[in-house]
Amino acid sequence: MKRYLLLCLIFVAGIAHAQLNLKVTKGVDNPTKIAVVPFSWAGGRLSEDLGKIVGNDLEFSGQFEAIAADRMLSFPRSEAEVHYRDWKALGSEYLLIGSITQQADRYYASYELFDVVQQKRVFAKLTVDGTEAQLRDMAHHISDKVYETITGIRGIFSTKLIYVEAFQKPQKYRLMLSDIDGFRPRMLLETKFPLLSPVWSPNGQRVAYVSFEVDNKPAIYIQDIATGRRQQMTNFRGLNGAPAWSPDGQKLAMALSKDGNPEIYVMNVLTRQLTRITNHFAIDHEPTWSADGSSIFFTSDRGGKPQIYEVNVASMQQERVTFDGDYNARPRVSPDGKSLVMLNKRPGTTHHIAAQDIKSGNLRILSETNLDESPTIAPNGAMLMYATRSGGKGVLAAVSLDARVKIIQPPKQGDVREPAWSPFFK
Amino acid sequence: MITKALKQGLTLAVVMSFLVGCSSSDNKGTETAPTTGTATTPAVTETAPLSNVVYFDFDQYSLTAESRAVLLAHADKLKGASVAVRLEGHADERGSREYNLALGEKRANAVRDFLVTQGVNGSSLEVVSFGEEQPAATGHDEASWAQNRRVEVKY
Questions:
Q1: A260 vs B140: CB contact, 8 Å cut-off?
Q2: What's the complex ipTM?
Q3: B80: domain CATH number?
Q4: pLDDT level of residue A67 (50, 70, 90 thresholds)
């Protein structure tokens, strides 16, 4: 049954949504110090402070410490005005300067990066432009460029986050989209019934999720993020859960219990043809694809406790993957295909996020918070976000894959959960 | 209607006296399901209401002795009756949200299968799972979790 629904909800402008506000609680031991000079701007009031956004972005990685503007001894606008001693005195290793100009309704941000220790310019002046509404995008773009230049790792500051916000009295659930720093939250869907398991399509244009909105029963939907147009993909008896896009975006793995028991299936998104992957009387659930799409990892309690298994999609051969702990569930594969991130519990402890090296089987606990769940990995593989509880509220937290950086959202109104980190755009 | 209720109470009393005899040996230490009032009170009177909730151990979907006793009484009421029954499975908040939906469904399925073996018409039983989405108790401790690992028998 094909169902196309146009949601007008997402076009409702002017509704201010609470914004996530994630704070670094633990950074690397010796963060790289960078001075981001307030960007020069000859006009009147500008709606965004680009230099500040870039500084915040870099600090959000946990690998940088941005020097506060009120400690700066000078505010250079060009290379000629840069005096390295001013920045050495502050212990700064890098210096970013920038300027903003306007032509008609377009803004142009030019920026230059300097290495204070080696006293040389790192890259020649670059310019990014956009409308006033894109000023934050321009800042995130600059953050990505600076981060990649210094660390050699692609930056994630232009990526997005989808998450679920739950409210009590009256009960309602919202599917939210925001910048990765939590700013510019936008509602994609609101329903009175449970909403969970959002996942981005590999091209970043669509989201699949599970909603109980029809008859208070779970069904899988796909929604186009830009237009809000959506399709109900499944309407089977029983569980319709845990959608997962194949790397080529053409298939959705999912768990269905239409034959009486939760099993893994793969659906062709276009034709909706279903292929059954598992057949076991135990729970088989939470499929996720390997990086190359050749196999599917999933949770199964066929051994008595939930553990992660891998099934090769061509041969259908199955193999248990996790052995450390009495509870391993909700797997996600790192972009390089080498690590498995999941929910882990060892006997006598609480649930934590853990990473396992797929080849060696070595498992490391990454989180120290309580009631952790739903890990989602950044597309550069350096960090992951997950849901946890703090101050009686559901909050989001993040941790670097080497566990050196820890970030948490202070508890606020509503319960925030089910984070889904977008892929890189374009 | 009144006679039916009386009959139900009597059935429960019989079940209870049977249960009291064997439940002590079935005790599993720390993973105790909360008392449902009717299920663990030995002095069941004819007016004791039949609990419509059965509870489960952590990460388990097998029926406890207490649950079977409660379900036997329901089966007795439902046998031969053409009543639509909704079995709503739930889990506590710990662990994975999706996995908990499966757990809730497995629990509701266990209740359905038991009722069917007791002669209840399977086609009148509908299974739904809410996982951890609709907790009965909202605390974040074992007492609340024990109340949330449940199947609600609704008719």
A1: no
A2: 0.90
A3: 3.30.1330.60
A4: very high
